């Protein structure tokens, strides 16, 4: 097994830093616009061989779209594959993550669970008596996978997102109007915004990523998660995790990963390894510039085929 030394990981961060200047931090929420574009942190969890970190390990950030990996896995666990994929597709997105035009294919369902339309449908199908229950179950799930009970929701970011969520609101009205979701629009959005605002650090992401790398059933909160669901989620991360840049990413990097507009990125590497990255400078597709470059270098070092 290849274990990377802390010095090696630090070197990778230094190699990537010059590229950060070509990106910009997300500015659609005040909370996200305060991020520093030259921040870059990474953690790799090697399971029994420990966690190696480089960069600003203690920086905290919100999951944003990375949460869609966890909500999908929970939905698969509670509803099963057939139920989930009758309601969302598993195809590549044609436009941006919150695009109004391209989320419905001719079959009529949102194109995949990682574009916002699909993610809202997934949130609607999570178990719980009300939206707060659903947020609590996602939060507990993330805490368990990351092995960190202190993980919480940044309510300031969630409230900002709710106020500025008109594009997501439009998607939610469309979805409710076509009976894709049964939760009321505002309840659905508030649940989604809180889930996106779950606050983590790179070690949390690396540990959760490592859990998702397992090839057998795993026990989370006393329940067995099916290995076939983990495999399906990894395949979707590789094929659609980077939105319209997914094909290029799959060819160049090959590590199943998911990014968020905060600069969060979680990677899942075979044989019990997980990667967590924070790099808030984003490219035009909304993916972390530092994250993409670090993943590319890590895929060589970790011998991903
Ligand atoms: O729905 C939104 O706009 C955000 N809360 C999440 C979007 C996101 O992270 C897209 N990923 N790059």
- Structural class, from helix and strand content? alpha+beta
How many helical stretches?
13
Hetero ligands: 6-diazenyl-5-OXO-L-norleucine
CATH superfamily: DD-peptidase/beta-lactamase superfamily
Overall pLDDT score? 93
Strand order of the largest sheet: 2-1-10-9-8
Classified by CATH, the class is Alpha Beta
Number of domains in the coordinates? Answer: 1
- Largest sheet entry: 5 strands, antiparallel
**Can you tell me the CATH architecture?**
3-Layer(aba) Sandwich
Percent helix, as a range, is: 40-55%
Q: Stretches where pLDDT falls below 50 for ≥5 residues?
A: none
What is the chain-wise order of helices and strands?
HHEEEHHHHEHHHEHEEHHEEEH
Question: What is the β-strand count?
Answer: 10
Shape: globular
Strand coverage percent:
5-15%
Radius of gyration: 18 Å
End-to-end gap = 14 Å
Named CATH topology: Beta-lactamase
InterPro entries: Beta-lactam/transpept-like, Glutaminase
GO molecular function: glutaminase activity
Protein name: Glutaminase
Organism: Mycolicibacterium agri (Mycobacterium agri)
């Amino acid at each position: 097994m290849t274990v990377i030394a802390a010095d090696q990981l630090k070197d990778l961060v230094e190699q990537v830093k010059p590229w950060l200047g070509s990106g910009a931090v997300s500015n659609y929420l005040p909370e996200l616009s305060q991020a520093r574009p030259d921040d870059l942190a990474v953690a790799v969890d090697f399971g029994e061989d420990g966690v190696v970190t480089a960069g600003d390990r203690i920086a905290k950030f919100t999951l944003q779209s990375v949460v869609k990996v966890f909500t999908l896995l929970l939905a698969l666990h509670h509803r099963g594959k057939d139920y989930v994929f009758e309601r969302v597709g598993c195809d590549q997105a044609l436009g941006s993550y919150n695009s109004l035009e391209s989320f419905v294919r001719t079959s009529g369902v949102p194109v995949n669970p990682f574009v916002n339309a699909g993610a809202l449908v997934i949130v609607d199908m999570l178990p719980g008596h009300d939206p707060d229950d659903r947020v609590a179950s996602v939060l507990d799930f993330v805490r368990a996978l990351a092995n960190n009970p202190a993980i919480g929701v940044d309510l300031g970011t969630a409230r900002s997102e709710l106020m500025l969520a008109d594009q997501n609101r439009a998607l939610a009205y469309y979805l409710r109007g076509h009976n894709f979701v049964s939760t009321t629009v505002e309840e659905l959005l508030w649940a989604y915004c809180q889930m996106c605002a779950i606050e983590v650090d790179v070690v949390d992401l690396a540990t959760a990523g490592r859990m998702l790398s397992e090839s057998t059933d795993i026990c989370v909160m006393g329940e067995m998660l099916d290995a076939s669901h983990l495999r399906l989620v990894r395949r979707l991360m590789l094929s659609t995790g980077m939105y319209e840049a997914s094909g290029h990413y799959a060819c160049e990097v090959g590590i199943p990963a998911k990014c968020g507009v905060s600069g969060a990125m979680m990677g899942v590497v075979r044989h019990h390894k997980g990667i967590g990255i924070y790099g808030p400078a984003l490219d035009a597709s909304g993916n972390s510039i530092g994250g993409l470059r670090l993943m590319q270098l890590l895929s060589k070092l970790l011998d991903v085929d």
